[in-house]
Structure formats: C-alpha cells, structure tokens
Design a protein that fits this description.
- By secondary structure, this protein is an alpha/beta fold.
- The protein has a single domain, classed as LmbE-like (Rossmann fold, 3-Layer(aba) Sandwich), CATH 3.40.50.
- It is built from 7 helices and 9 strands.
- It has a 7-stranded mixed β-sheet.
- Strand 6, helix 4 and strand 7 form a beta-alpha-beta unit.
Length: 248
C-alpha cells in the first residue's frame, strides 16, 4: 500500500497493473456523478472500466412516464459512459424496487464472474434511499459468492477483487467517513461533460443542486488532498488494518 505526501491521498488503485474497475450503482447516474472522474482517469491509463446500473432510475421525472424516462436515462447513460471511456451494463430491476434477495445477489455474482474486476466501487451501507443501501448489501455479498466454487453459475469463480470502495453520495452520508482521497484534477473537465448528459443533474427535474454540490465537493476534497480536485471513498473497518515493518 503506497501513501503519497501527507498520507491523505491513498494510491492503492494505482499500485498494480491490469486493473479492471467495476462500478455498481442503484440508478443510472449514481456512479457517474460520484466516481466518474476516477473512471475516466483509469480508462485514460488503459484500464478496463465497466458501470453496472441495477436500475435506470426511471421514476425520477414527474413530467414523464417511467417508460418514457427509462428511454431517456438509457440514452444519457450511454452518452456518459462513452465520454468516460466506460462500458455500461443495464440491470433488470426497477427504480425503488431493487429486491434484497438471493436472486439479485446471484445476478451481480454472475456480472462479477464475467467482468472479473480487480476493484469494485459501490454505495456506502447507510442511505436515505433504500435502493442504495440494498445495493451495498447485494454487492458485498455477491463478491463473496463470486469467489466460491460450487455456486451455481454459467461462469467460473473470480477471486481477484483486491478491494471494495464506497463512493461519497449526498444520500449515503450516515456514518460515511472519507478514508481514501484520489486526485481527479486531470479528468475533472471530462467528468463535468459526462455528468451533464443527465437532465436530472443539470436540468430542473430535481430540487437538489446535483451539479453544484458535486463540483463544489470535488474542490473541497481536493483542498484536503493537497490537489485541485479530488473524490473520496470509505472502506469497511477491517480494510483499515495496515501492517508495516517500519514507518513509511
């Protein structure tokens, strides 16, 4: 594990070659707005980047039917992924109805076995949105399932996940403690362009100022990381156990 400068910027995501980053969000837009700049950074370095949207978030526009908005969100997600240099997978679930079920865990297990990620990014465990907290539980359980022999699946097991990282989302702040700070200065403008594909981020659909909040947050986190712009991740407590032979 490599630390830079003041130890505020953690560089484990860059410590090994041949990275495959799988970002799993409850709704189209969740991963792009929280971690899209990092995904673009990895893509530019030649790493494979994949975003899995468990739902389109199709019930978030009161001016459109869910069916109409689903078509719009899919198009927006594809445009954003293209700008970030990411592949995109659309899950089978509906906004507000992600099931906290074995079936959902097996679905994500199959995606993990197919993509074979080295790093996974998803939601923090506590959220005011149940889809987010359910997604957290599904993903963390699916990582275990994907590593096991004997689990019914068309695909071979995958034991190569080096870490699970939890993105900073305004809806997921209960108990969230930033632990990893990553400099995103070089891809900040690409990220802004990508998230601007989404009407809910730059339009009038939501009363929450998504664009202003996340661009401002990136500057605040950047100041703490001694960079211009940064994003943060939380990790589980057991992941904070670092063994050293001497001071770095």
């Amino acid at each position: 594990m490599v630390w830079a400068g003041t130890n505020l910027l953690y560089e484990d995501l860059y410590s090994q070659p041949e990275r495959i980053i799988l970002a799993i969000g409850a709704h189209a837009g969740d991963m792009e707005i929280t971690t899209g700049a990092l995904l673009a950074k990895h893509s530019a370095k030649g790493d494979r980047v994949v975003i899995l949207h468990l739902t389109l978030g199709e019930r978030g526009n009161p001016a459109m039917t869910p069916e109409e908005y689903a078509l719009q969100k899919r198009s927006e997600a594809e445009e954003a992924a293209d700008l970030l240099g990411s592949e995109v997978i659309f899950g089978p679930y509906h906004d507000g109805e992600i099931p906290d079920s074995e079936e959902a865990r097996r679905y994500v297990n199959d995606v993990i076995r197919q993509v074979k990620p080295t790093h996974i990014i998803t939601h923090w465990k506590n959220s005011i949105h149940k889809d987010h907290s359910i997604t957290h539980r599904i993903v963390t359980d699916a990582v275990l399932l994907a590593s096991l022999e004997g689990v019914e699946s068309e695909y071979p097991r995958h034991r190569g996940v080096r870490g699970i990282y939890f993105a900073e989302n305004w809806e997921d702040m209960e108990g969230y403690q930033p632990y990893i700070f990553v400099d995103i200065t070089e891809t900040f403008d690409i990220w802004k362009d990508a998230i601007s594909r989404y009407e809910f981020i730059v339009g009038d659909i939501s009363a929450f100022p998504y664009y202003d909040y996340y661009t401002s947050l990136a500057r605040v986190r950047g100041a703490l990381a001694r960079s211009t712009y940064a994003i943060t991740f939380a990790i589980d407590e057991f992941g904070k156990r670092i063994t050293w032979q001497h001071l770095p």
